[in-house]
Design goal:
The complex is a heterodimer of chains A (796) and B (262). Chain A is α+β, with helices and mostly antiparallel strands and 796 residues long. Chain B folds into three domains: 5-49, Uridine Diphospho-n-acetylenolpyruvylglucosamine Reductase, domain 2 (2-Layer Sandwich), CATH 3.30.43.10; 59-163, Uridine Diphospho-n-acetylenolpyruvylglucosamine Reductase, domain 3, CATH 3.30.465.10; 167-260, CO dehydrogenase flavoprotein, C-terminal domain (Enolase-like, domain 1). Chain B is built from ten helices and twelve strands. The chains are: A alpha+beta (796), B alpha+beta (262). The interface between A and B is medium-sized, with 24 and 16 residues.
Chain lengths: 796, 262
C-alpha cells in the first residue's frame, strides 16, 4: 500500500501529529506510579552494597517491629519458587547448552552485584518502609568482585559457584564457515585488525520502573500494573516460570510507560515480589524505583570487547570478516541477554557487503555487575560499529576513499533477495541509492573549505560516514525456534467495529513513545476509507487485548501492524457480506471505496456506518449465513525479518587543546520501505541518533575493581542534552518496500542508534589524522579527556 | 528524606537565633542540600530558610565601587543586575540551568564551597569580602579547602562585596555529566595587579595560580602563559579526567580567559 494511492485524509503517508502527545505534554498521562489503589501499601527493597558476597545471616526482627511494617521478605521466602529464565537457549560450539544459573526473586545465599536485592519491606507508607529497610540487619561476607571480562575468564572468582565457570557459552557462527574463513584470512593480501570496545550503557528511560500488585481474595485473581514493553510476555514468564500463577488468574496492565529502550522488555524480581506480597497481605503493594536504583538494577546495554579482522584484496574487495567478542551478561541472565550478543549480532556481521566469508565467535561472560541485555538496537549496533569501523580503517590503510570502498562491496539492487554470508536472507534494499542521497546531503565538495575555516580558528575538522543494514521486526517463529528461542514472535490484533461505526483496535504491540495510537489508525482508516479519529488503539492490558509479544526490535508496525491489516481485511470481507445483504446483491459485486459499500456499476450503496449498525441490530438479517457483530482477530507471523538499511555521515569539529568534540553536521539516509507516518519516522530517527551520539561521545558506565558503579547518577553519567546534538538532516524517501509483509514496511525505531556511533567515531579519527596525529582508533565514549589523552599519548 | 521542621525568618537576627538549635541547618536555594536530604544523607532537625530575609537579597553598588550581592540573591538576579562587573554577571548566567539559577544563591554556593562550583572562583579572583552576621572575611582567608571555609557553626553569609576589575572573564570547561566546572578559571585585572582563581581542578578546592598572576602582571596576554606549567599531582583525578588533563586545562582556560577579558 504505497502512500501515493492514499485517498483518505490522515491515512497512510500522512504526517499526522501524534494524538497521544496531548495527554503526555499536559500531564494527563497515567503512569504506573499515578495509579493509587484503596488500601495501597509500599515496598522498599534492601539492596547489596557489595558486588560479591555470601549472605551469612539476615535478621529482620528489628525491621518487623517498626511502625507501619506489614511484612519483611527475604530470599528464603522464594527458595521454592522458580527463577526468572533466559528466553533463548544458546549452544556452545561444542554442542553443550549454555550455563543457566537460577535468577531468584530475591538473592538467596549470595549477592552478586551492587544493587542485588536480598530483602524487601512492605509498610503502610513509603517512609516507614524506608526506615524499616535500614533496620534489616545482614551479615555479608564480602568476596573479591569480578568486574572485568578478561579476568573473569582467566579464573577470577566465580559469580555462580554451581556452574564452576564464568563463561555462559562459547558460540560460533557459522561454525561450518570457521575453517574457510580462517583460510581466507591467512591467504589474503591485506588484513586490517581492530580491537575495540562497545561501551556499556545505562538505559535511563524517563520514567523509572514501577510495579503495583493487587490480589483480589474474592476471586483469587491478581492484577499487576507494571512498566512493561510487553505485558503478555511478563504474564507468561511469571505464570510459567516464576510464581506459577495461572495465566487466567493474572492480569498484567502496562499503562502509559515513559520510555523503555529495551530495559522494560524484561521481567524483574520486583514484579514477583509485589505480587507475592499482595497475596500474603491481601492488600495492594506498590514499588517505584528511585533513579539510583534504576542505575544499579535496570538491565544495562552493550558492553562488548571485540577483535575484528577484515581481509581484502589490494583493490579493496572484501574477502572475509572474522570476529571474536566477549559479551558481558552481568551477574544474571536477563530474558534476552543470550540472544542479543549472538543471533542479533553475529547474523549481521556481513553488513551491507557481498563478502563471501564470515565467522563470529562470542563468549558470554558472567561478572559481578548489573545484568546486561538488549538496549535500543540490541546486538546490531555492536555489529554495525565493528564492521564500519574496520572498513574505515581498511580504507585508510589501502589509501581508498571511504565511500568507494563501501560501494565496491555493496550488495547491488539486482542481487536481492540476497543470502548473506552470515546466514540471513536480505529481502530488499538499494544501498547505493542511500549513499547517493547521503552524498548530496553532506555537501562533500564543500568539506575542504569548511575544514579550512575550522583550522583558521585552531580547530580540527573531520568527516566520517558509514553504511548499515539491520534485521528487525523480530520474528519469524519458525526461524527463531530453530535458533533457540523459547517463545514465538508473532503478534495479534482485534478490530472491533462498534454499532455506531467507531472502532477499537486491540493490539499486542505496546506503545511507550512509538506513536502507535496515531500510526495504527492511519492504516485502518486507509483500508476502510474512514476518519482515523474514529479509531482508538487499545494496548497494554492482557484483559483487553487478544495476545501480543510486545514492542522491541522495531517490530510493532512490521509484525503487529501486519496483524492489524489481516484483521481489517477480515472485517472488510464480513462487512461486504452484510452490505450485499442490505443492497440485495452478491457479495462479489460489492466494492469498498471512501467508506462506502456499493454494488459495482450501480449507484446503490450503503455507508460503513450503516453496515456497522446493521451488524449489531440484525433485524431482517441472514443469521444462518452471517453472525451478528463485526469484530475480527488476526495473528500474524512474518516470513522473515525486515532489513532497514542506509548511510550516515557525521561532521565534527575538534578542539585539540581540550579534546572537546562538537558535532557540526549529521546526515541520515534511511531505507525503511514504505512509510505510514513520515513525521513519526523522523522523530524515531532523531531519537535514535541522539542515543547513538550519546554512546559515541559522553555515556560512560564505569565500575571500579570492587564492583562499585562509579557513574551511578547524573552527576557522573552524562546523558545527551539538546546542546550536545546538532540539527539533523534526515531523509527516508524512496525506500525499497519489504517484500513479505502486507504494508511493505521495515522497522525504524532503532536504526538511528544502530548506525550513528560509527560515523561519529570515524569523523573524530578523521579530524585527529588531519591534525597530524597518528590515532587510528580510540574507544567510545569520546569524552574530551579521553580524546585529549589519545592525541597526546606517546608516539602519536 | 527524613522529617524536619522548617522555619523561614525574615531578619538576619531571627535566622541566627534559629540556627543556634542543635542540628538546625541553614537553607539557601537548596541546590545541594535538598538532593542530599532526598538521598537521606543528612538529618537536620530544622531547616532555617534564608531566602525570606529581605536585607539579604539584591545587588547594589557600594560607595567604594564594589558590586554588593546579598547572600540570598539567586544567580539569575546576579546575572541580570551585576552589569557593573560583566565577568561576574556572565559567570552567574552560566551556572547550572535556569531552574538552578532561579533557586541557587551566592551565599549558599560560597558556604558549601563545592570544589567544582563557579562562585568561589569569582570571589577569590576579585578579592571579594565575605560579610557574615558576625564579621568580614577576605576571600584569601575564607576558602580553606574542599567543602571547608572560615565560617563558624551557625554563621551566615549575609553579603558578598566584589571589587570591580578593569577587565575580567570566567572561562569554564564543563564536566559532561554534571556540567559543573571540570576546570573553571576566573581572571581579573585590577589597577594593582592581576588575580587568577581556579575552580574544579584541585584536591584543595579553589586556588590562586600565583605564577600565572606574576606572568600576567608583566604582560596581560595569553602568550605570557606559554612557559608556565602546572603539575597534575595535586589535581583531582576521576572518571572525567586525570590530574594531568586538569592541569593542562587550567593553562588553556586561563589563556582563553585572558584573551576574552573585557
Amino acid at each position: 500500500m504505497p502512500k501515493d494511492n492514499s485517498t483518505v485524509e490522515g491515512g497512510i503517508g500522512a504526517a499526522t501529529v501524534r494524538r497521544e502527545d496531548i495527554r503526555f505534554l499536559t500531564g494527563d498521562g497515567q503512569y504506573t506510579d499515578d495509579i493509587v489503589l484503596q488500601g495501597q501499601t509500599h515496598a522498599i527493597f534492601v539492596r547489596s552494597d557489595v558486588a560479591n558476597g555470601v549472605i551469612k545471616s539476615i535478621d529482620t526482627s528489628a525491621a518487623e517491629a517498626m511502625p507501619g511494617v506489614l511484612a519483611v521478605f527475604t530470599g528464603e521466602d522464594f527458595a521454592e519458587v522458580g527463577g526468572n529464565p533466559a528466553g533463548w537457549l544458546i549452544n556452545s560450539r561444542d554442542g553443550e547448552p549454555m550455563k543457566e544459573p537460577k535468577r531468584p526473586v530475591l538473592a538467596h545465599g549470595k549477592v552478586r552485584h551492587v544493587g542485588d536485592a536480598y530483602a524487601a519491606v512492605v509498610a503502610e507508607t513509603k517512609e516507614q518502609a524506608m526506615d524499616a529497610a535500614a533496620a534489616v540487619e545482614v551479615d555479608i561476607e564480602e568476596l573479591d568482585a569480578v568486574t572485568d571480562m578478561t579476568s573473569a575468564i582467566a579464573g577470577g572468582g566465580l559469580v555462580h559457584d554451581e556452574i564452576e565457570t564464568n563463561i555462559c557459552f562459547d558460540w560460533g557462527w557459522i561454525e561450518d564457515n570457521r575453517a574457510a574463513t580462517d583460510a581466507a584470512i591467512k591467504a589474503a593480501p591485506h588484513v586490517t585488525t581492530l580491537e575495540l570496545v562497545n561501551n556499556r550503557l545505562v538505559p535511563n528511560a524517563m520514567e523509572p520502573r514501577a510495579s503495583t500488585a493487587d490480589y483480589n481474595k474474592g476471586t483469587g485473581e491478581y492484577t499487576l500494573y507494571t512498566t512493561s514493553q510487553n505485558p503478555h510476555l511478563t504474564r507468561l514468564l511469571i505464570s510459567a516460570f516464576v510464581l506459577g500463577i495461572p495465566e487466567n488468574k493474572l492480569r498484567v496492565v502496562a499503562p502509559d510507560v515513559g520510555g523503555g529502550f529495551g530495559s522494560k522488555i524484561y521481567h524483574y524480581g520486583e514484579e514477583a515480589l509485589v505480587l507475592a506480597a499482595s497475596k500474603k497481605l491481601k492488600r495492594p503493594v506498590k514499588w517505584t524505583s528511585s533513579r539510583s536504583e534504576a542505575f544499579l538494577t535496570d538491565a544495562h546495554g552493550r558492553d562488548h570487547v571485540t577483535k575484528i579482522e577484515l581481509a581484502c584484496e589490494k583493490d579493496g574487495t572484501f574477502i572475509a570478516f572474522r570476529t571474536e567478542t566477549l559479551a558481558n551478561v552481568g551477574a544474571y541472565l536477563s530474558n534476552f541477554s543470550t540472544v542479543t550478543p549472538t543471533f542479533l549480532h553475529g547474523t549481521l556481521m556481513a553488513g551491507n557487503y557481498t563478502v563471501p566469508n564470515v565467522y563470529v565467535n562470542v563468549k558470554a561472560v558472567f561478572t559481578n555487575t548489573a545484568p546486561v541485555d538488549a538496549y535500543r538496537g540490541a546486538g546490531r549496533p555492536e555489529a554495525t560499529y565493528s564492521i564500519e569501523r574496520v572498513v574505515d580503517m581498511a580504507a585508510r590503510e589501502l589509501g581508498m576513499d571511504p565511500i568507494k570502498i563501501r560501494r565496491k562491496n555493496f550488495i547491488k539492487p539486482d542481487q536481492f533477495p540476497f543470502a548473506s554470508a552470515a546466514g540471513l536472507e536480505y529481502d530488499s534494499g538499494n544501498y547505493d541509492r542511500q549513499m547517493d542521497k547521503l552524498e548530496v546531503m553532506i555537501d562533500r565538495d564543500g568539506f575542504s573549505a569548511r575544514r579550512a575555516e575550522s583550522e583558521k580558528k585552531g580547530m580540527l575538522r573531520g568527516l566520517g560516514l558509514n553504511a548499515y543494514v539491520e534485521a528487525c521486526g523480530i520474528a519469524p517463529s519458525n526461524l527463531i525456534g530453530i535458533l533457540g528461542a523459547r517463545v514465538g514472535l508473532y503478534d495479534a490484533a482485534t478490530v472491533r467495529v462498534n454499532a455506531t461505526g467507531n472502532l477499537a483496535v486491540m493490539v499486542g504491540a505496546h506503545s511507550h513513545g512509538q506513536g502507535h495510537e496515531t500510526a495504527f489508525p492511519q492504516v485502518v482508516a486507509e483500508m476502510l476509507g474512514i476518519d482515523p479519529m474514529s479509531i482508538e488503539i487499545v494496548h497494554g492490558d492482557t484483559a483487553k487485548i487478544p495476545f501480543g509479544m510486545g514492542t522491541y526490535g522495531s517490530r510493532s508496525l512490521a509484525v503487529c501492524g501486519s496483524a492489524v491489516v489481516r484483521a481489517t481485511e477480515k472485517i472488510i470481507v464480513k462487512a461486504k457480506k452484510i452490505a450485499a445483504h442490505m443492497l440485495a446483491a452478491a457479495d462479489t459485486e460489492i466494492e469498498l471505496r471512501d467508506g462506502q459499500f456499493s454494488v459495482a456499476g450501480t449507484n446503490k450503496s450503503v455507508s460503513f456506518g450503516e453496515v456497522a449498525l446493521k451488524a449489531y441490530i440484525p433485524h431482517q438479517f441472514p443469521i444462518e449465513e452471517i453472525e451478528p457483530g463485526l469484530e475480527e482477530t488476526a495473528f500474524y507471523d512474518p516470513a522473515n525479518f525486515t532489513y532497514p538499511s542506509g548511510a550516515y555521515a557525521c561532521e565534527v569539529e575538534l578542539d585539540p587543546k581540550t579534546g572537546k568534540v562538537t558535532i557540526e553536521r549529521f546526515a541520515a539516509a534511511d531505507d525503511f520501505g514504505n512509510i505510514i507516518n513520515p513525521m513519526i519516522v523522523t522523530g524515531q530517527v532523531h531519537g535514535g541518533i541522539g542515543q547513538g551520539i550519546g554512546q559515541a561521545l559522553i555515556e560512560q558506565t564505569a565500575y571500579d575493581e570492587n564492583g562499585q558503579l562509579l557513574s551511578a547518577s547524573y552527576m557522573d553519567y552524562a546523558m545527551p542534552r539538546a546542546d550536545d546534538l546538532p540539527f539533523y538532516q534526515v531523509n527516508h524517501d524512496d525506500g525499497t518496500p519489504c517484500t513479505h509483509n502486507p504494508l511493505g514496511v521495515k522497522g525504524c525505531g532503532e536504526a538511528g542508534a544502530i548506525a550513528s556511533p560509527a560515523s561519529v567515531v570515524n569523523a573524530v579519527i578523521d579530524a585527529m589524522q588531519s591534525g597530524g596525529k597518528n590515532v587510528t582508533h580510540m574507544d567510545m565514549p569520546l569524552t574530551p579527556s579521553r580524546v585529549w589523552e589519545a592525541m597526546n599519548a606517546k608516539g602519536v | 528524606m527524613y522529617n524536619f521542621e522548617m522555619t523561614r525568618p525574615s531578619t538576619i537576627a531571627d535566622a541566627v537565633k534559629a540556627l543556634q538549635d542543635e542540628d538546625a541547618q541553614a537553607l539557601g536555594g537548596g541546590q545541594t542540600l535538598i538532593p542530599t536530604l532526598k538521598q537521606r544523607l543528612a538529618m537536620p532537625s530544622t531547616l532555617v530558610s534564608l531566602t525570606g530575609i529581605g536585607e539579604m537579597r539584591g545587588v547594589c553598588m557600594s560607595d567604594a565601587g564594589e558590586v554588593c550581592v546579598g547572600g540570598a540573591t539567586p544567580h539569575a538576579v546576579v546575572a541580570r543586575e551585576a552589569s557593573a562587573f560583566p565577568g561576574l554577571a556572565a559567570l552567574a548566567s552560566h551556572i547550572g540551568d535556569p531552574a538552578v539559577r532561579n533557586r541557587g544563591t551566592v551565599g549558599g554556593s560560597l558556604a558549601n564551597n563545592d570544589p567544582s562550583a563557579c562562585y568561589p572562583a569569582a570571589a577569590l579572583a576579585s578579592g571579594a569580602t565575605i560579610i557574615t552576621n558576625a564579621r568580614e572575611i577576605v576571600a584569601d582567608e575564607y576558602f580553606q579547602g574542599m567543602f571547608t571555609t572560615a565560617l563558624e557553626e551557625g554563621e551566615i553569609i549575609t553579603e558578598v562585596r566584589f571589587p570591580v576589575p578593569e577587565k575580567s572573564h570566567y572561562e569554564k570547561f564543563v564536566q559532561p555529566a554534571s556540567r559543573f566546572a571540570l576546570v573553571g578559571v576566573m581572571v581579573a585585572k585590577y589597577a594593582d595587579g592581576v588575580r587568577v582563581a581556579v575552580t574544579g581542578a584541585s584536591e584543595e578546592g579553589v586556588f590562586r595560580w600565583a605564577e600565572a598572576e606574576a606572568a600576567l602582571n608583566a604582560n596581560f596576554s595569553a602568550d605570557a602563559l606559554d612557559d608556565l606549567s602546572l603539575g597534575g599531582d595535586d589535581m583531582i583525578s576521576d572518571l572525567h579526567g586525570s590530574g594531568d588533563y586538569r592541569a593542562h586545562l587550567v593553562k588553556v582556560m586561563t589563556g582563553r580567559a585572558v584573551s576574552k577579558a573585557a
